[in-house]
Amino acid sequence: MPQEKKQVLKRLNAAKDLSRFMAEYYYELDEADRSGKQKIAWCTSVGPAELLRGMGYHIYFPETHSAMLGTTRMATDLIPTANAMGYSPEICSYLTADIGAFVKGVTPLSKAFKGISHVPEPDILVYNTNQCRDVQDWFNWYGDQFKVPVVGIQSHRSVGQITESHIDSIASQIENLVAPLEAVAGRRLDMDVFKSAVALSRECSDLWEKCLATASTSPAPLTFFDATTLMGPAVVGRGTQKAVDVYRLLLEELESRVAVGEGALVDEEKHRLYWDGMPVWGRLGMHSKMFAELNANVIASTYCSSWIFSALDPSDPFRSMARAYTELFITRDDAYKENYIQNKLAFFGCDGMVYHNARTCPNNTNCLYGLPQRLQTKTGIPFVIIDGDLNDLRCLSDEQTRTNIEAFIEQLEERK
Fold first, then answer.
1. pLDDT of residue 1
2. Is the model's pLDDT at 3 over the cut of 60?
3. Beta 124-128 vs 150-153: how paired, if at all?
4. Which of 168, 237, 188 is nearest to 29 (CA)?
5. What pLDDT digit, counting tens, does each position of 352-376 carry?
6. Strand, helix or coil at 392?
7. Cα dihedral angle (61, 273, 341, 219), rounded to 10 degrees?
């Protein structure tokens, strides 16, 4: 008889509620696409979703589709299609995987959700370059394919102290989107609906922040790998009551675990780690089990906190959106990032750091210019760097990753 594999992680019951949320989201999009009764806007993951809700758009986020291409491990086979079209293998593998999938006429949605055969067609595409400049090229390609308008926001990069001039420039760009969005929507911006969406986004953000913060307890009730899948509604559902409701359920369960001292790992949590950079989507399960088997819990990350927007204020929607979307970790300078991570290491009680050097995502990679070494000098907390990518598994060696992580955990053991 083959030996039964030992369970090393505990599944959250609320994960089913979040999965149901995502299914309903995609089925509603598909219905809007089929019926044509509701305009569809494609939006980047930290684009002006609240503004779009104020005009009745149904919103599709291509980055979540690319993450699905990664988790289903379809991406690696599709990226070469975009490479052959002239897109470098060095640029964002979200972009190359997604365009490759479109050209090939395939989508993971068709396997995950029965009856959905393709991504919804946009009436307009809206981007914000606060995540990276690649989204502009990505959306412009689709604009050409569908013959629809593409509008966007050009964000500031390497921001230190945020000034009123930063906010003025982004707020005015958001306001300038109103006219072209109204023209496509065939309706005026409803300020009451817009402000309500901002309020709901803020509430969703606050709940998501509280969910992530439960990992500051020991043992932590969730892992970084849990959070990468649980964050779906914070991305696609912000500005909706449904997202708020589902995170209330999640927070209740996490707080129940905390109250009884129940951790996410089946066995003892000996080490608490912080992950910086993108996840390796095609290795979420493998990586979560690998760390758990070593009695290590990756409890926090910069990535999953990217959808915390504490500046959102419905009484001043344009300017508060501008501030919230400029405060993002990814847009800031290294001095800010060092201080941010240092504070998080202390808050979560971490004894080690894992940096993911994602080959095609330099904007979400913070281990290339000496930041890990500077932080270790400041905090005394050791680090390890793993080479890989968010979607392109050709950039990853599973054997080397395991060897490096095992050696790192041994190093942490010796420090005790």
1. 40
2. no
3. parallel
4. 237
5. 999 999 999 999 999 999 999 999 9
6. coil
7. 90
Mean pLDDT of the chain: 97
Those residues whose C-beta lies under 8 Å from the C-beta of residue 28, and which sit 6 or more positions away, are: 58
Closest among 276, 271, 277 to 291, alpha carbons compared? 271
Q: Residue 32, Cα to own-chain centre: how many angstroms?
A: 24
Q: Retrieve residue 167's tokens.
A: 């906010």
Q: Which residue has the tokens 């209330």?
A: 248
**Per-residue confidence (pLDDT) for residue 70, from 0 to 100:** 98
DSSP 82-141: HHHTT--TTS-HHHHHHHHHHHHT--THHHHSTT--SPPPPSEEEEETTS-THHHHHHHH
Question: How far apart are the C-alpha atoms of 48 and 50, rounded to whole Å?
Answer: 6
Does 110 score more than 50 pLDDT? Answer: yes
Q: 219: cis peptide before it, omega within 30°? A: yes
CB 244 within 8 A of CB 277: no
Residue 15 phi, psi dihedral angles, 5° rounding: -60, -30
Dmax over CA atoms of the chain, in Å, equals 68
pLDDT by residue (tens digit) across 274-287?
999 999 999 999 99
Distance in angstroms between the alpha carbons of the first and the last residue of the chain: 39
**Mean per-residue pLDDT, 26-48:** 97
The C-alpha atoms of residue 347 and residue 1 are separated, in whole angstroms, by 46
Structure tokens at 249: 């359920």
In degrees, to the nearest 5, what angle opens at C-alpha 298 toward C-alphas 416 and 284? 140
DSSP at 362? G
77 closest CA partner among 107, 103, 111, 101: 101
> 2 pLDDT band (50/70/90 cuts)?
very low
Cα angle for residues 322, 326, 331 (degrees, 5° grid): 160
Read off the tokens for 215: 């990992």
The helix or strand, by DSSP H or E, that contains position 356, with its residue range, turns out to be: strand 352-358
Alpha-carbon torsion (398, 113, 94, 244), positive or negative: negative
Question: For the CA atoms of 269, 275, 281, 287, what is the dihedral angle to 10 degrees?
Answer: -30
- Which of 166, 153, 141, 146 is CA-nearest to residue 51? 153
CA 92 from chain centre, in angstroms, equals 14
